[in-house]
Amino acid sequence: MYAPLQNDTFIRACMRQATEHTPVWLMRQAGRYLPEYKATRAKAGSFMGLATNTDYATEVTLQPLERYKLDAAILFSDILTIPDAMGLGLSFALGEGPKFAHNVRDEAAVAKLAVPDMAKLRYVFDAVTSIRKALNGRVPLIGFSGSPWTLACYMVEGGGSDDYRAVKTMLYQRPDLMHRMLAINADSVAEYLNAQIEAGAQAVMIFDSWGGVLSDSAFPEFSLAYTARVLSKLKRSHDGVVIPRLVFTKGGGLWLDAMGQLDCEVLGLDWNVNLGKARAQVGTHGKSGSNAKALQGNLDPNVLFANASQVETEAIKVLDSFGKPHTNANTTGPTHIFNLGHGISQFTPPENVEVLVNAVHAHSRTMRL
Amino acid sequence: MYAPLQNDTFIRACMRQATEHTPVWLMRQAGRYLPEYKATRAKAGSFMGLATNTDYATEVTLQPLERYKLDAAILFSDILTIPDAMGLGLSFALGEGPKFAHNVRDEAAVAKLAVPDMAKLRYVFDAVTSIRKALNGRVPLIGFSGSPWTLACYMVEGGGSDDYRAVKTMLYQRPDLMHRMLAINADSVAEYLNAQIEAGAQAVMIFDSWGGVLSDSAFPEFSLAYTARVLSKLKRSHDGVVIPRLVFTKGGGLWLDAMGQLDCEVLGLDWNVNLGKARAQVGTHGKSGSNAKALQGNLDPNVLFANASQVETEAIKVLDSFGKPHTNANTTGPTHIFNLGHGISQFTPPENVEVLVNAVHAHSRTMRL
Prior knowledge:
homodimer, alpha/beta, TIM Barrel, seven-stranded parallel sheet, two-stranded antiparallel sheet, 15 helices, 11 strands, globular
């Protein structure tokens, strides 16, 4: 049905298999820093107009691949499509973050929640299939969703937040409601990601963008447990091909030991984390046995505002902090997937992304010599 | 000159000496969640009007002590008084964060920076002396400042920021300018805190509120090194009495090993950190020898939006996560100072603060039995 994969570097690195260079892609690589993206968005009229139109979603997903030698594509969509399908009414004002028409703050609102009919998310699955076809095997396509906890943050707050007061008030005051919402979110995310896999996604990533706002005692109960619930329900393979699963908890660096126990292949890390230490902790076979993870990250996106030579220097610093990936084609071992530690800024000079991608490829090849 | 200290629990805990209960105070304990604070601020007309008036600053510093059995007072002021004294023009619109009239974004602006004349900060030192007198020995008075890096964030951004793009652009593009600014900031903070000590502060705290936005490779160079520079210049005692020094890096939990090497007595921790692990890492004599630190923190301020019994439960959880403090009056050992992991929210119900303070005192006494 689809063309065979020509560049499988990303998939192999996810599976902790040796690669010739360190694969690189960037969170939000299709986005506002690209003039061609802005042109397509202007045609679409709104963010959701863009995300719900198969042709536009395909077009913007492929735009960064035309410019840069990226090793993966990621579905153009948003982490909040599920609560939108639950009827909360997602919108994006120009230049602003997501907003819901309805929020979920009391028992009655939680009681109304249910796993949405996946038919309402058909536009996402259609986009996945269309993008997969358009990629024609160039690089693999990553599907994604927000984590159950991150979805809950937005559902309760009704949008972004500085202090997460509403969602944490519910968490501390009505943990029963919070657990009910998180269970529904987890089952929704699992169905959603499985449908993306069936539609053609070759890897899936769970963005726990707000896991890091939780306390050390609340994180395992309200975020990690529900990420684990999603993972337990995900398809491991499709059409006989393994589907790697990536989990990224922004601000979760202190909980790497616990995250190392997740049933997934890759952990995403932000720029607070030392990649060398993380590799020793969860990236290497040892006391954690077969749970060893591939690691993804973790350049500070603000590095891309520096000069070209400084971008190179900082990219090399990240590669060197991970250290030499294993190179034995016959075994698995520590692998690194280069990425930013968070989404790319809309103000990024596009030419610096090219410098970055090329520096990662060039330096990571020399590291393997 | 001053009345002798009646409740020295906080000071003893800072020095890792045994205490009968775990001392507790709250970051921003004098503030907008108290109706009496709002009344005083209305009289003062503005935040800076409040902070620069000795009588008002004294009044609001003591307000929470009238309500709660807190074990320390903290000077009512702001972390940004130094850049204001440098001429950047600090103001606070009602309900909003700090704003500077001028920011520092280029070589010319950095070249103009200098350690400010401490006479311009006389209002702070006068407030310290006035508060110390008004306290009349009830509890010790903590003086404070922003860290060199945190001051730089506000100076470059001109106020708060979502992404720290301006300050990080300077950091990555012109590290020479950033280092120059940080050196001036460090020397200013040291002079400022020493003057607070001379004016009557019995402990001093450095708030590195934005240390946690730095990458693992940038934190030691751009934040920690300059906090260390401040500490190296601080008075160790005044009038023959030791002055404990506290350092709090919000979001710095991953760098505890490095922070454990700082020449200070106490490390503040946010709610991401597991207190038991932190105690094992930096709170106990061992491989780090005499560098062991007292630990301060780390309740999520949002717990205070729950019901009274839940506030108690969560407070006990924090105390238990640290574990039993040492109780031997003849030696030093692991000690805990209870606090929030960040400033108290302006929306906090005042009655829950009473529940919290009393729960900390009651449970921490039973832990010592």
